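Possible regression after last week's pipeline update?

I re-ran a chain I had predicted before the update to compare outputs. Posting the input and the new output here so someone can diff against the archived version. Not blocking, just want to make sure nothing changed silently.
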Amino acid sequence: MKPILDVIKFEGGNHQMVWKHPAEDFSTLSTLIVNPSQVAIFYKNGTIADIYKEGRYVLSTENIPILRKIIEIPTGGVSSFSCQIYYVNLVEAMDVKWGLPSRSSWIDPVYGIPVTVGARGNMSLLVDDPASVVISLVGADAGLTAEDLARYFRDLITMRVKTYLAQICQAERIDIFSMTSRQELIAEALKKKLAADFKGYGFRLRMFTVSDFILPEDDPAYMRLKRAISERTTGITEMQTDRMKANIAAQASAESEVIRSQGHAASLYNLGTNHVLERQLDIAETMAGNESMNQFSGMAGSMVMMGGAMNMGAQAANVMGNAMNSSGNPNLAGNPYMSQNPFMPQQAQQQTAPQQAVPAQNPQGEMKACVQCGKPLPKYAKFCMDCGSAQPKLCPNCGKVIPDGAKFCMECGTKID
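New output (post-update):
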């Protein structure tokens, strides 16, 4: 005769989701131990008597009310009874593999050709209703493992995934060449559709992934379409590359032209500056060699002539800069050589054009006195009409006396003919 068991506890492996205790004869005072993340289900005559969560229990009529109906308690209050105890693991079953043994077929929503596609991946399950799991999947078996789950659900997954995969691709207009890039979207949609199917068996589908799609590489229609798309994509890529090369070449040519134009503008500016300096030196040398001017007047004249020459150089530089700016070239228009003149004050540079000296006329009534006899003479007469004496030369602009041999007025810088 088998001894009556006094302690009931889980003795299965970690891989088991449901484990049935091998003993069926228990004392009414036996101790039941339920570990964390487990529940224990009592079966009596094919009916669930009670479900125990984690903890330590003493089997008695208080803990198992059904005993009052099925056990006659003898003297001493201790007896034995027959039942089954199932331990259900509530820990999530990870890395449960799934796959389609045959391919799913549908009409490609974009290209309109028949396609056949296989798929495989992983999923994880969590017991949501322990009683439903034991009733629907275990029955009289000794237990249930993760491998058993994959085997039990193989036909369900094959049937459901083949149908759902075609529906998702049609609804989302996912062509056969885009399935891999939209793999995450397809997996999430499959999970939502499969969740209701697993719930009917007492499981919650926590994770569902698609690791790979098996494309119809042996289908001639698929291969012809694949080659056509590849050739078209390659042609577009080559056109984009050629266009990019042409843009780069045009940009390099434009930059080279800008650099050349800037160098040419700088050369013109330097040429004009050197010419102004040479003219200044010529004027200074001419005035220094004028014997009719004393030392003081020669120095003052030189300074005036230098200032006039510098004004002339500034005017020439401004004229050249305006000509460059009017050409419409934005690089020349912003060239510092063309926009600034180091030989002119800032106020003078802001003028559009320097004022030219206009020789004064000898209006009627503008007279002067002869230096010899005092007789009245026209202002710019060179000889006296009365005594014939030579008269000093006057500046046609300001009327100041011009020394003999001077080419410019010492007062206003006007050129003397």
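Follow-up from reviewer: compared with the archived run. Residues 220-288 form the longest helix (69 residues). Marking as no regression found.
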